[in-house]
Amino acid sequence: xxxxxxxxxxxxxxxxxxxxxxxxxxxxxxxxxxxxxxxxxxxxxxxxxxxxxxxxxxxxxxxxxxxxxxxxxxxxxxxxxxxxxxxxxxxxxxxxxxxxxxxxxxxxxxxxxxxxxxxxxxxxxxxxxxxxxxxxxxxxxxxxxxxxxxxxxxxxxxxxxxxxxxxxxxxxxxxxxxxxxxxxxxxxxxxxxxxxxxxxxxxxxxxxxxxxxxxxxxxxxxxxxxxxxxxxxxxxxxxxxxxxxxxxxxxxxxxxxxxxxxxxxxxxxxxxxxxxxxxxxxxxxxxxxxxxxxxxxxxxxxxxxxxxxxxxxxxxxxxxxxxxxxxxxxxxxxxxxxxxxxxxxxxxxxxxxxxxxxxxxxxxxxxxxxxxxxxxxxxxxxxxxxxxxxxxxxxxxxxxxxxxxxxxxxxxxxxxxxxxxxxxxxxxxxxxxxxxxxxxxxxxxxxxxxxxxxxxxxxxxxxxxxxxxxxxxxxxxxxxxxxxxxxxxxxxxxxxxxxxxxxxxxxxxxxxxxxxxxxxxxxxxxxxxxxxxxxxxxxxxxxxxxxxxxxxxxxxxxxxxxxxxxxxxxxxxxxxxxxxxxxxxxxxxxxxxxxxxxxxxxxxxxxxxxxxxxxxxxxxxxxxxxxxxxxxxxxxxxxxxxxxxxxxxxxxxxxxxxxxxxxxxxxxxxxxxxxxxxxxxxxxxxxxxxxxxxxxxxxxxxxxxxxxxxxxxxxxxxxxxxxxxxxxxxxxxxxxxxxxxxxxxxxxxxxxxxxxxxxxxxxxxxxxxxxxxxxxxxxxxxxxxxxxxxxxxxxxxxxxxxxxxxxxxxxxxxxxxxxxxxxxxxxxxxxxxxxxxxxxxxxxxxxxxxxxxxxxxxxxxxxxxxxxxxxxxxxxxxxxxxxxxxxxxxxxxxxxxxxxxxxxxxxxxxxxxxxxxxxxxxxxxxxxxx
Length: 930
What we know:
The protein folds into 4 domains: about 425 residues, 4-Layer Sandwich (Glutamine Phosphoribosylpyrophosphate, subunit 1, domain 1); about 280 residues, Alpha-Beta Barrel (TIM Barrel); about 30 residues, no CATH class; about 80 residues, no CATH class. The longest helix has 22 residues. The protein has 28 helices and 28 strands. The chain is globular, with a radius of gyration of 31 Å. The protein is an alpha+beta fold. The two termini are about 40 Å apart.
């Protein structure tokens, strides 16, 4: 297996995602049958269109199969190939490994040393028979040396055999990592084995010769065809992994990994005792989202937790608005959300522990799974129906799995467990509801007067200097705050942003502007926060998390809040719970002549000491600001503290709540929550609303409207990324930094990436000093209108300013002898320069203008986002220019592409299709050139 120092030069390996086809075939009798493996391979090959092929047209993104271990076959293999007899009464475990010829001897010695210590006997290593000619050129060039090793027990143990093998594998993997070796253990089990690789489904059985042997007879085969959406493919990233095969994307993977790292210190286990440390880290930043999910699920199961409850904890159902959900099942979900946040995103998983094989759908049902039960005793589960031909007379059941559904089949012939029965069994094992009634504190929302009426107006009025010191502008008040407080809706603006990124802006931009929200793309759908509101949730649990491996229905208690945006009354109630939920307020400002870096370090240490002393809530507040003090940007403080506590493995013990004076809009709240804050109290915004509506007796309602608008915006931001719950969005790090120094990011935002570098702490400090000087200067401070939201002369630059349109008209009327260059950069592309030093060629040696224009297409903008007249004329203009227009997802009126319309120029040549919506029909598609 050839390896280069950096085989991923153009992307971050932490961002591995994939979307695929998956399924399984199993016998209901629990007995091996000759037909199972051939049928599974055939079914996998019929999912080939769900995978992808590399540029060499032969190398697939990855395919694999996970069968139960056919012990008779391997006993015969050991006897014939290696001359070793293994008695039938002895347990046989098999490890499947990708390594290199150079590493093989080292691997062998390493396995030998660890095997003996863990009570196993190494029988032999076997080189797996493969046909390299079946692979594509790319796969062959990095093909690993594939070996199996065989173990039997040398001494018994109270722990289950599979758990002991899991511990052994983790110890060997840690040795591989520490020695910087390249070997990879695909599986190590006495029940299942994994055959996979960088190939397509059609190549799998041609490559692995074991799979075509007539005596390779199994009762189960889990299969997977990989489509790597935004990463390169590798041998190790092929699926199935050790316990699962996954079709979908875990949108919250960054946050899930961080939270797992944070809670490692709190995990205690009578099952593992001192061996628990050998299992850490439970997962890591490398590998795909599916692999990290597999790591955690396997850890839970091998640590003694039930397979189904573990899967239901990681992918919970939407229970908040379900009126028919049983009380105990709802209690199960609430209880376990205090152990772990949901792993959110579109997902259809197939998983097994060697005793059962099961399938689970995400809460939205955004990935397909269908199963067929035949009268002759097979269960066929797959991403699509029809992968196996089943005669109608042999068909018992055909079913399309619904959102949140779970389904399981016993591998011992004990039958099928369907969704409701399985959930009832899991929820009934413990008295979760009784425990919640005793230990869960719920802060229930009341009317506006009770929630906000306690926000008093001081006799002397609010200090107007403070809002300027926090960076508030006239636009923040007139374009955001007051409209939101009046209507309860986010402000309406045009699509897109034609202002410069904060890093190249000449205006004083707030720190939140350096963060751009991630959004669902490629194969990953966003969700609709209005129509799918029933599966979305903003409620949050505050307080320390509990031991992940403790299944007893008792826990430290938690506080439930209805949303992460707090009212004055809710903050007061949290203060009153101090005896049960100790808290500490930590002030987030520094002296004007002080060192911001030192102050942040001190805040981090304060938080660490506070957690170690038993506080379960930390209020990070920039209140009590005064002249001579600078507010620290709250996102900077939150991220620094969050990552510091994660690193010290203390983060799961405490909730961080921001009492912030610089929060204006929903994006600001999203940044704080995404960076690790559990809740936000925008006190300065409330203060300005109270002041503005001073003569309106309904001012508490205005505050409620503002909060409601923030919540609606937060739901839309989550939905845009395909995330359903605020618990999943919390600490998810779903942002890109634009214009922050990479050194600065590495220190304070290590989970955030930046495509371009930029400012650091010194620049931020100077910006805060400037605001302070304006706020506390000799002249009375006043709100400035920067012109961010709409164009203002002397304000922020806009790409579509009046001057730009005048310039276009000037050139169009041929009054300019040459093109007019922009005076200042607005977009990042304005900073690009050609690096080529080659001389230009003569124009007559280039393609004609007509040929070049044929390659141009308009941006896809939907009918409705712009008017029908503009949409029609855009298509006409592009056609007359020899270019192509794009309909956008909204389609177009049928008269424009009708065969009877003589004006063919109004037909958009590019038809964009969005899930078959918007009147997509045969005639519509036939009128497309692309």
